[in-house]
Each structure stands twice: as C-alpha cells, then as structure tokens.
Write a structure and sequence with these properties.
seven-stranded mixed β-sheet, SGNH_hydro_sf, SASA, alpha/beta, hydrolase activity, hydrolase
C-alpha cells in the first residue's frame, strides 16, 4: 500500500504539469528499427491472435518531469512507455531502451537537466531506407530540428538497427551505408562531432548476422561508441529484446554516452 501511494503521488504530480511548461535542456535522437522502438512485454494473445503489450513498466522506466518525449505533433510531453507508440504506430510497441537510458543518465548525473527524447525508430526497416533523401531520413531531420527549436541542444544519436539487413547483399553493403548515414546526419544537423551510440545487434532476419555485426564493430568515426547486445534475452519470436534486456541495453547506452562526453586522461 505504501509503494502504491508513492506511485500514485508521482503520477498525479507528473500529470499536473501543463504542456506549455515543458522544455528540455538536452535532447537525444532515438532511431533504427524495432528493438529501438521497443518490443519488451509484447506477446501473442491466443484468444484474438493479435500482438499485445503486457503493460508492465519496470522501475527503470518510471516517468518523471525530467524526462520528456517529442510527440507525433511535435510537442513536448512527459515520456511514458511505450515510448514509440505514436511513431511506430503500425506495430505493437512495448518497452524499449529509451526510458532506461534516460533514467540511468539522471541517476549517474543528477545535474544533467531535463532530457528530451525524440523517438524516430520504425520496425522492420533496412539501412537503405534511412539514407539521405528517404522518407525516414527526412522525418528524422524534421523531428530533430523541431526538437531543438525549444532551445535544448541535441546531445547524441542513439542507433539500434541492422536485423533486417542480414541477407547477403544488404549485409555486404551495410558498413558503407551506415557510415554514410551517420556522416549525413552530422552534416545536416551542423554538428560534425555529434556523439553517436550504436547497439551491435545479436539477432537478425537472415544468414549474415555475423557480417552485419562485423560492420558495426568496425565503424571508424570520432565521438562514436558501441554496446553489444550479445547475451540479451528475447520475447517468443527470438528476434526482439524482452523487457529485462531492453532495460539492460538502455543502461549500457547511458554508460556509453557518458564515456564519450567524459574527459579521459591519456
């Protein structure tokens, strides 16, 4: 009962903030495909034969006034799971790495300020669909620019994608396409040293998963860091992270970002 009262007070407080008051200090772009959008807690309802989210939100994904999300209509709102439900709206979204990433940042850096997340990930997409000039690329740029108009600064791009590029031809072309995408994002946002944090995939739809992993592990860019999804556990489809692993990857991304921006001795 005591825990319920605390949670009720938190949710009531969060819900009382007027939308016009919400502005982030630091902004993160979340892009890629389904494991960034989040499928944690998604299951097949055997009665309806439809995919549903179980609605279970772990403590690491708790909403707070210090974590905002850019809605589909480009206004700032309190961030809540499923974070990508408006953006990846043709799929069933669940828990992803975005909320645990942000809560971990604030746990390690309480002075970091209000964080704004910009969900852009779309399930089932290939890197070819994210190249400059495509619908997904243009949407990413449009949402990034809209987010920064509020006065916050874009701190990093978080990228989790590649599962759909595990066919032979796509895998062979993956590294060049990915590096071009990253360079184009930096150029078009006028941020040549924008930190980029990538998740190295551990599951894929094809026989060339190892080739895509090798490409991701050998990206050669400044202000770039990666975390490996090896060791993750999955929902029933053996492709998408379960809630526990989505939280784990989010926390690893937080540590990866803080490593990039923290001064290091030689």
């Amino acid at each position: 009962m005591f825990l319920f009262v605390i949670f009720f007070v938190l949710v009531t407080h969060v819900g009382s903030i007027m939308p016009g008051e919400l502005k982030p200090d630091n902004i993160f772009l979340l892009a890629g495909q389904s494991n960034m959008a989040g499928r944690g807690g998604v299951y097949n309802d055997t009665v309806t034969n439809l995919l549903k989210w179980d609605g279970l939100v772990p403590p690491q994904c708790t909403p707070t006034p210090n974590i905002l999300t850019l809605s589909l209509n480009k206004t700032w709102e309190i961030a809540r799971e499923p974070l990508h439900k408006e953006i990846d709206n043709l799929k069933t979204c669940g828990v992803g790495p975005g909320m645990p990433f942000t809560n971990q940042i604030l746990a390690e850096r309480p002075d970091f300020g209000v964080i704004g997340l910009v969900p852009c990930a779309i399930g089932g997409t290939k890197i070819e669909q994210w190249q400059k000039g495509t619908i997904l690329y243009n949407q990413l740029m449009d949402r990034a620019r809209a987010a920064s108009q509020s006065g916050g600064r874009i701190c990093a791009l978080l990228w989790y994608q590649g599962e759909s590029d595990c066919g032979e031809q796509d895998a062979m072309l993956y590294k060049g396409r990915l590096e071009k995408f990253f360079n184009d994002v930096r150029e078009d946002l006028n941020s040549p040293y924008l930190p980029i944090n990538l998740v190295v995939i551990s599951s894929g739809e094809g026989e060339f998963l190892t080739s895509v992993r090798d490409a991701q592990l050998n990206i050669n860019l400044s202000n770039f860091n990666s975390v490996d999804a090896v060791g993750s556990t999955f929902i029933a489809d053996h492709l998408h992270l379960d809630t526990r692993s989505a939280v784990r990857i989010g926390q690893k991304l937080a540590d990866s970002f803080l490593y990039i921006i923290s001064p290091r001795s030689n």
